[in-house]
């Protein structure tokens, strides 16, 4: 098979008569589709009863694809169990947050602790691997689908207690970790520990818990429990398939699962790109870039796949707009810019019935190939074909790291006090957006990442500080790097207990300050912050900062001050010099311009502002192929405008030579992939 | 008994001492009240224990009414079961959407599949019929009360599976109907099928389901299951009462029950008129007119009863305003204009305690007869008495049909995609309002209605197309009629599976177009649509229309175009000529003026614009008595204004002769009933 | 021990190592803290297993406090049961409104009807009393914590039925009380009566019930059931402790518990002062004053304790602002002004983990004593020390009574009709705020209070009229007093059945009017009311008043009239002269200025307008010590302003002599305690 950017998508021919298959492949050929994902949700089809398998149709599907020269991603169908399974094993269904055992319905519906579900899903994965494992058309295995959700059943309760025994060893350590002396919760027998939900520690939903410790551990346990299913299926595949890579389709900025705990078990990362609607194109675009970065960061920067995106509309939203002309192409190339080696659709042919019947597809209900959507699919397929393998395997070297930490995400949002209106993603995306607009190449990495590679490390809302992170950050700064963190960082240890020290805990000395109080206000309350000659709006939390010298250096210098309330004139933003570097603290939540001011100052310290940093809505990203060739992507998410070509090179899409400094007219949704040289 | 417009209401003398009965009848005589509905909710009273009946008080109630010359509507009390029943048979209580078995409380609380509830309610209906069946004062039987709600208990699950076996015969057909191959839901045993609720296919409530097919069938099943109770009680009555008509009080535009499935079992239609509050008087008025029309349409245009309305306030709303002076009279005459032969109140005497103690009544807690409300009741009673039988049995001939279809209502609102903000009633009432303002006499009919009677057929949001409807519509148009339908019509078949054809499915050829894409936007997004020289606002959904010739004729002509977005300049509203007629398509949701423009164009094609079509808030309706006399009602729902008398005749209320073209000063809430001649 | 205003707070040294205790006491000495509440939530610590008690640490805590000269409030820990209890006795956990049995979690989690919880909590209270009962450092006992919540378990159902048997004697009386004939709810066996919740009579939450009677009785029962726990623990203490007063910490304006039913069982009142955030300082301040008054009124005006307040932030709110500088002092002195003899904090040392880790504390996580918060605590402690016993035991004589009635609160908010937007506290606080701003000294008392002490009695939303209240109000007026009541008063009897008489029932004659209709409108609808030359805004409910002479005197005179709607020009506010006094009726909900107009008119009739009644945001309150010395508190809740000194005297805080009429510059948060003389 030709090496090129994978192109295709989810395909369920078992739901259609054979003559439709012919239509499908004719259209695939027209569109340059070379990859199909088959088998997702086919469990009832492949195994109509516990004691009966039927691979005849899948055999035909695989053979047809192979015959057409189309590559196959073979999925295990465990994302949705069949009715017979739930009927035979009712406790394979989940118990929900409200404490109710569900009966059969929907998908992603199996209890991760059910031994029957585990046994049957793993057996089927093994059967598939045994039968198709050496088929040359199969280029990847895809386990389950969009893992997620939580079960609170008694069996999960038991598994949770086993997980806790493993983690804490004895109850004294657990009681200390959860601070159970508060409110008389000291557990004296493991059996006393319930799954934390609406019937035990919670009120007003999953983020409101009386004991953050138990809830935090239940999220960690849930992430691990779901991972257990993936790992077991993967092992069953590996028993027959030694080399073909195994993945699952993740969901980007998905709060319920800590993908960093999953990363070591994935042979490559893949994810489904359905950005939330947003008024502003750059918010949408930068959010996708952040998610691409997060996914890329799971495997240390290796290329990933976009396993799903819609060619046009979604169906599951309250309101589902069509993708505007050119947007499909623009976003697809953005994926490639950020490291995708394949860009697939959900779905190739539109479903007849049920809840995704109006979800967009390459081929609509009428099977037309003369639609705008199909034409755009064809055009993009043509470009991918023309580019061939020129970009494959490329990486995106970065000197800036953005730290993402699921534990902090969970902890800060389930905290009682200071302010429930602070949402982790809002702050993370605000800082990322500033980096993105500045054309900075950013690695989105876990707090355990090697920081010695970076000049700038940005860590918004790093509420929890674990392990030796503070030491590694200090080392970064000492050797000349820049560290930026924000309000509500450095508050708790790995068990969500407050540091018995000045805020922000392990960072206080490095930052040259302590936070004495944290004011919180309703969303409409604005405190103006003066910063480098401009005044920005701050909201939600206002930390009262006392600059204070520490062993590592002098007290922080004040860079921004509050303009209102009883703390008017006191520091809101500070910068401390430590060794050869500096450490910034932003003690409040600034508006976009305020965040940009801080971020650009830190980038400027290291000469990392990009060539089109001042052009709004235009994205610049770089990908370097294994042979060292650098490709600069220029992507216009906004209105038509003219910019200066940033580098000499050849546009891979138009074939035109471009000279740095020349004028470049960017139409809306314009894409340029400039091979430098 | 005198033949006249029935006047009276719900009456529960069993809750009061006998001396109050004397007061009641004195007041009834003053007010001209000649009809009482007795027995509603009297179960515990009539049958204090399973093995004990006590009809002594009801005997007295019936005899007293008869002695006073008051007609009786005798109700079976099955709208609320007594505590002893629920206590003896706990599974006679419902299981709710959340999967919880209820214990005793409220009303309309019985599981329709409970054999004990069925047995006991039917037995009591039989006892009543046996005892009172030949009483001459009884003019109608009234089974239960405001049927509604849903049960999801295991017994309903079993009954649902029986219903499905009846409908589909075998599981293969069921699996195809529900498209269960999607998400691995192929059922291999009937017992695997659960009632669809929050524990199975649903999330975010009853309109959010993973499988529309199962949910749609559960709604149909529920409608039939409740009907089963009505039918069984009616049969028990008919065993003793050969002729007296049997009805139940319906609720107009009530989404949970498909009244079209009930209609054949009703001897006459009756309903409870509690319009939702609305800022604009014409919205309220036209909505009531629509509901009257729907009820009238159940029995092919035969007169119906308003079984309940409040003389003043409701109690169950968050905010319960009093009816403004004259409104009771205005709305009561509007009922008659649209086909009511009786206008009754809930309630005649105000309840002492519990949740309706503040609901309005003819007689308040103090029993006063010198209140504004009582005076208005007396005045209206006097008018009804004066008019006598002049209007009884009248019908409202119409050349315009508005199609209402519960299946489409359910399907479009439970659809995932394109837009959850599209609500069936909003669109239905918008089109109806335009017809109403144009003084069009409209039949509100099911999609199975005989269309050969009509010149114009309007079908908003006809999402589902069943049976031979498309053929009948085509025939209508071919012979010179006009058909109007809208965005989101013609999408699915009877099983909610998408037509594998161009949108709008079976109507595409007739309409001379295909819809290639459907854009959906948030409610604040407006696309201006230019239509016949005016510009109107369109919202929510924007279909991208491709006019296309079809065997029946040329491509549609473009009547309106979008003014914004990438589809600016493309068709939004079209009209196709087919045979002697035309077919309109409105591919978006227009504002009121836009809808009026389309509707008036179609009415004008058939010279159906009414005499006061341009006078806002003034309603014109016609009722023709069996002797062929035409009565024109002129009802002013707005401010005082002067109009031209539309026809020669005599005002039945004032006795004045009116000449067409003369000035007629309409006070607010004015009512004129002009006997033409 | 020195007699002085108690100062200190909740203290849990069992959660900390001993060296922290040394730090604590050093800080307490600095701050003048002389009182600690210990033992709250220490159950698991004191009784680690059902058969094992461990008082060793508590012994040390008590001895240390005593050695430091610090007074002890010893709490029983029954506010939160330990895990072993819930595990051994699962039905000690509550069943919630949704009908779900909870498992272990949170606090205030025990079923009040659980015999095991009762037995174990009482036994532990007895053990504590036996061991520490004669310890001289213990100045008070504190049972449980913030009693509240409701259980709907089968055992509570049984206890409810016992309670009903006690109340009603037989089912006939119960059926009459609840008006069960409505909707066929006649109970024929006690066992048929369910606890009223989402599975029986309720929908849309606790305020929406089909039968107000059963729900009202369940609230009364719940209040009594929780009280049963308090009474039983108190009895166990009294078996060993003859004299030391016993209390529990209440919550001020807390709707779920009728504190008037609790009052006889408390040796003194205490409460936790966490005012809701509010935009306006006077709304917050007057609301606290109202709550202080309510608590004081429980024990006939005797001094009470503020058992908890935060020194800075709360944690449980969505948004938790810090207390602004001076506010801690201002609010603390306000407590004293209104009768507090002790002002305690929650908490002395900040918790490490779980849901209150960010709740403010005297000592923060770092244990700092150089913070703003600690400094303010020290300053206030110093003032309390300087004032010594000068104010102890003082009372606040009042000639104005504000009636508060939990039954009316419950009844009016669970009523179906006329308007769900009417909230009892909104109206109560509006009338109180007007009194407060006028510097009126107000007793906040139950409807059973002796009214002969008062000149003015204000009774907003007195929906339910019980016992001989109407007679006592009439006597008040006859002898020259003034009575003020509002819309929606006088509607129902003790069983929530409507009076079968003109509205407002027993008050109609006294008020010289009847209410014929009650209009209700959406919140945005304003009807202007002209009143004493001003026009005020009225909203929500508009009663149509007919002045009517009654045996006691002439018809009411009209003081205010509606300006809009069909009842424009009719009475909105009236005043009836009866005997030597007058009775006001405000038939709608007026804005603040309108309420103030009425309230000030009534105060002026008795020369009760205070010296700074026209100075916004400045509070004046008086406390008279047992020796007859009068202390006038002047508290500035607003911006800086200058006022006239109202009386001659000496400022206890500054030591300055003040002369009536001199200028007094009030800084923001200024406090003056003027000892008159």
From TrEMBL, chains A, B, C:
Keywords: Glycosidase, Hydrolase
Residues annotated as domain Beta-galactosidase trimerisation: 398-608
GO molecular function: beta-galactosidase activity
Source organism superkingdom: Bacteria
InterPro entries attached to this UniProt entry: Beta_galactosidase_C, Beta_galactosidase_Trimer, Class_I_gatase-like, GH, Glyco_hydro_42, Glyco_hydro_42_N, Glyco_hydro_b
Pfam family, one: Glyco_hydro_42
Keyword Chaperone annotated: no
Chain ranges of the Beta-galactosidase C-terminal domain: 617-676
Catalytic reactions on record: Hydrolysis of terminal non-reducing beta-D-galactose residues in beta-D-galactosides
Keyword NAD among UniProt keywords: no
Chain ranges of the Glycoside hydrolase family 42 N-terminal domain: 10-385
Family note: Belongs to the glycosyl hydrolase 42 family.
Name under which the protein is recorded: Beta-galactosidase
């Amino acid at each position: 098979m030709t090496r090129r950017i994978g192109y295709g998508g989810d395909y369920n021919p078992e739901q259609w008569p054979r003559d439709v298959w012919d239509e499908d492949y004719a259209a695939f050929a027209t569109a340059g589709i070379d990859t199909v994902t088959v088998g997702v949700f086919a469990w009832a089809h492949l195994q109509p009863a516990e004691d009966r398998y039927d691979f005849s149709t899948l055999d035909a599907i695989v053979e047809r694809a192979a015959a057409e020269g189309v590559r196959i991603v073979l999925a295990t169908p465990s994302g949705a169990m069949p009715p017979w399974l739930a009927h035979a094993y009712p406790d394979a269904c989940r118990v929900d947050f409200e404490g109710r055992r569900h009966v059969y319905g929907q998908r992603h519906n199996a209890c991760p602790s059910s031994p029957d579900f585990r046994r049957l899903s793993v057996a089927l994965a093994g059967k598939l691997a045994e039968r198709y494992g050496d088929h040359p058309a199969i280029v990847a295995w895809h386990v389950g689908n969009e893992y997620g959700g939580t079960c609170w059943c008694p069996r999960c309760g038991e598994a949770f207690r086993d997980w806790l025994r493993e983690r804490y060893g004895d109850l004294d350590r657990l009681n200390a970790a959860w601070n159970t002396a508060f409110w008389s919760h000291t557990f004296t027998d493991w059996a006393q520990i319930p799954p934390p939900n609406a019937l035990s520690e919670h009120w007003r939903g999953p983020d409101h818990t009386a004991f953050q410790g138990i809830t935090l551990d239940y999220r960690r346990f849930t992430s691990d429990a779901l991972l257990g299913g993936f790992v077991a299926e993967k092992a069953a595949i590996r028993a027959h398939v030694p080399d073909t890579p195994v993945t699952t389709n993740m969901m980007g900025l998905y709060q319920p699962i800590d993908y960093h705990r999953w990363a070591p078990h994935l042979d490559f990362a893949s994810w489904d790109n359905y950005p939330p609607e947003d008024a502003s194109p750059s918010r949408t675009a930068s959010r996708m870039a952040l998610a691409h970065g997060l996914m890329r960061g799971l495997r240390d920067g290796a290329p990933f796949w976009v396993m799903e995106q819609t060619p046009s509309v979604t169906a599951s939203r309250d309101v589902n707009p069509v993708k505007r002309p050119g947007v499909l192409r623009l976003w697809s190339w953005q994926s490639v810019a950020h490291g995708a080696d394949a860009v697939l659709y959900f779905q190739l042919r539109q479903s007849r019935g049920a809840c995704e019947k109006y979800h967009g597809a390459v081929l609509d209900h009428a099977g037309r190939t003369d639609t705008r959507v199909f034409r755009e699919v064809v055009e993009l397929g043509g470009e991918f074909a023309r580019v061939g393998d020129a970009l494959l395997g490329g990486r995106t070297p970065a000197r800036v790291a953005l730290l993402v930490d699921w534990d902090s995400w969970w902890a800060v949002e389930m905290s009682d006090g200071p302010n429930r209106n602070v949402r982790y993603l809002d702050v993370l995306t605000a800082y990322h957006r500033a980096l993105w607009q500045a054309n900075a190449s950013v690695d989105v990495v876990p707090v355990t990442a090697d920081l010695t590679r970076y000049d700038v490390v940005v860590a918004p809302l790093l509420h929890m500080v674990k392990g030796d992170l503070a030491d590694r950050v200090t080392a970064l700064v000492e050797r000349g790097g820049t560290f930026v963190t924000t309000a509500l960082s450095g508050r708790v240890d790995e068990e969500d207990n407050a540091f018995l020290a000045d805020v922000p805990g392990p960072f206080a000395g490095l930052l040259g300050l302590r936070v004495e109080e944290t004011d919180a206000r309703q969303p409409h309350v604005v405190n103006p912050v003066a910063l480098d000659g401009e005044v920005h709006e701050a909201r939600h939390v206002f930390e009262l900062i006392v600059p204070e010298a520490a062993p590592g250096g002098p007290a922080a210098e004040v860079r921004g001050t509050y303009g209102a309330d009883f703390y008017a004139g006191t520091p809101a933003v500070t910068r401390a010099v430590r060794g050869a570097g500096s450490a910034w603290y932003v003690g409040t939540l600034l508006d976009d311009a305020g965040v940009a001011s801080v971020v650009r100052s830190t980038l400027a310290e290291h000469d990392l502002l990009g060539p089109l940093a001042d052009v709004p809505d235009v994205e610049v990203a770089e990908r370097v192929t294994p042979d060292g060739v650098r490709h600069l992507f220029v992507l216009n998410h906004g209105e038509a405008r003219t910019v200066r070509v940033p580098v000499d090179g050849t546009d891979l899409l138009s074939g035109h030579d471009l000279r740095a400094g020349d004028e470049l007219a960017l139409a809306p949704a314009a894409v340029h992939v400039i091979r430098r040289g």
